[in-house]
């Protein structure tokens, strides 16, 4: 960012007369707004379409396919419809808090995107407390949810808000512990530093750094699912019990803010997992030199585009897994959720951080053989998993096609 | 430190996503834990039993569909059997087989919805849609048989209204061939899912004693480990000639008589129904599907009681005739009504989420409660 601002100051003489800090600030704010408008908002919308299509495929349905090719513009149609809808505020609701809650939820989620990197250069603010800031600012969401649950003056909303508060506050701990493990290895809280500490190839990722890292990754993944209210942890909005939980009384655009938050959150889960454990935007150095060798603007843009694509692809895989899990598993109960957090994830998180600390003392440089072994183990597990999925798909598809009624 | 908490009165229903129709529960909760859930019935009362006194015997047949719309075939047949018993009408063997085939197909349809919606109530949406997909195929078959997909109105006093269409049996067998592996898939998706077992196992335990005291019937009774099925114990129609098992609860996921047992009994019953259907198609004799009965049926004065095993258990029809062409009194004895009565006792100390699973596992159909 600073480089871009410096370049602007050099090129535009009018900017040289005002203090450089103001220019930096202005560039950051503009870039943040552009990114929110141009990336996060459409992405959240597109995820809603992807999720509906994927879910439909899993259920043997068709899903939205009317608006645009393959129903791609469904999310725009839904957005327009929601804006045009009447904004209903129940008479018994607390009008100020009821209005405020969706914005708090929205702001908490989107403020987190400030520290999420897209490539080695594309990041709004590479804060030195980056990951810490991310945990802190996403917690604002719980205030908004609790507020909406309370202000709706509806018993279902209240129950949903309470459940959500308990859930998010509890799951901060295992996710914090899992992030701590990565901070051990890097020695820095900045997300860019964390990514720079890894390499492009899987055996250079933090996920395979030592035997304790997969544990940390899994506990982070489960905890983020819970923080994002995704199935099997979607108890705050459990449809069959609480109608719609904290968003029961909301309609129109305010309702969409809640769902916007949820879908943006899926990307955030994926981005944090990718940055911390899966090598982030790292591409092989040879590729980077090759891409930078192009003359003119291409040499400047191409490496970043490749890094962006790498990061995005990795994140997209996790996004798909999150959707997949949602439409496969039943929901767990609220007490089981708590016992999973406190009896399993938190102890595992502590064990992983202790294990990593000991490992770092014993092998300060890491063990290459262990990295390769872990990587191969993961590859084999994935292969076996895909074999099983393919088998199941084949097994369940076969008779359906034989059936004359389909 | 003493925490002073206040009891909250939560009004669940009559319109609520998980009450499967119009049922209301007055739930007294203390946070997530309930002190009691009192069912409140009567929102769907349509005076069907009174209508029976105003309609002729044949004219009442379509109303029996509405008693339990998920098992309309069973209600049809139960009523027809009661009238035939009172009027002394013998129906043909082919009609008996056609009735059994239709009833067992109906059992599959009903159980698919029961286990699917149970999955949805504990948060798994996909199995529900898969169950509905299979149900649609079975519905198509029934539609070909009698022209209806939900309220079949298929049985007639003296037989059934239509014989099966040519090659219908082959279509049903083809459906069964592809349906059986899909039950296995369903098992992998739902029955063997760890989360489902944790959610249902040991929850809403109905002991054998309670089940008998509260007069539970059908899969709810068998889920408590009691092997009682009218198709075996008080055989009617052609059931004695058929070979099938009665699945009972085993308590494999927790305690005997928990929600999982009731769910699993239904899963197993679908397989048994497939077995019964296969045998029926092997044995079905040629002949008339309906015997000649007078246009206006006037059974001799008297009363009779017929018990049949519907999908929701013991479906009894008590019929009083005064010798005219209209019934003097008809009384349906339905499984869902009894299942509702036990909710208040079992739900004490449950969590709100468990109540939903418990109601779903009882497979309550709202119109059957009120008639």
Structure in a nutshell:
The complex is a heterodimer of chains A (406) and B (371). Chain A has 406 residues and is mainly alpha-helical.
Describe the structure.
- With 406 residues, chain A is mainly α.
- Chain A has helices at residues 2-11, 20-58, 74-84, 95-112, 130-138, 140-151, 155-186, 191-196, 213-227, 239-242, 252-277, 285-292, 296-326, 334-362, 368-402.
- Mean pLDDT of chain A is 82; it is low at 398-406.
- A 3-stranded antiparallel beta sheet of chain B has the order 1-2-3.
- In chain B, helix 4 (93-121) runs antiparallel to helix 11 and helix 11 packs parallel to helix 14 (352-362).
- Chain B starts with 7 loop residues before the first strand and ends with a helix.
- In chain B, 50% of the residues are buried.
- The model of chain B has no long low-confidence stretch (mean pLDDT 86).
- The interface between A and B is large, with 41 and 42 residues.
Kindly report how far apart the N and C termini of chain B lie: 51 Å
The multimeric state of the shown protein is heterodimer
Radius of gyration of chain B, whole Å = 21 Å
Biggest interface pair, residues each?
A-B, 41 and 42 residues
**Helix-strand pattern of chain A, N to C?**
HHHHHHHHHHHHHHH
Spans of at least 5 consecutive residues with low confidence of chain B:
none
Quick one: overall form of chain A?
A: globular
